[in-house]
Specification:
By secondary structure, this protein is mostly beta strands.
Length: about 110
């Protein structure tokens, strides 16, 4: 917001635009980030989930507008979720000793 003025030379003065800047991104839990070359609106940075975790989404963070304050930038969210192996398929013909903890995710 502000005031702009039309001058006698037919040019406008009194305004400027600055790019929305998100600052340096923080790595989501269980992940590592590539290097953010720029941190302004539309910039992206690659997210690499650690071993045993899967990407949920595009595998990158994107700088956009903060939902609560559109004059500020904010990085998109990303989740690296633990790999879920599901319940083991054990048949009656198998000899086994199994202790079930109810948790079926990576290294559980």
């Amino acid at each position: 917001s502000g005031t702009i003025t039309c001058g006698a030379d037919k040019t406008w003065t009194g305004f400027s635009c600055t790019a929305v800047d998100c600052g340096q991104p923080s790595a989501p839990q269980n992940s590592q980030l590539g290097t953010a070359r720029t941190t302004t609106f539309g910039s992206t940075v690659i997210v690499n989930c650690e071993m045993g975790y899967n990407q949920s989404g595009a595998g990158m963070l994107t700088c956009g507008l903060d939902r609560s304050d559109t004059t500020r930038g904010a990085w998109s969210t990303h989740i690296c979720a633990a790999v879920d192996c599901g319940t083991p398929n054990i048949t009656n013909s198998m000899t086994h000793t199994l202790t079930m903890t109810g948790v079926t995710t990576f290294e559980a």
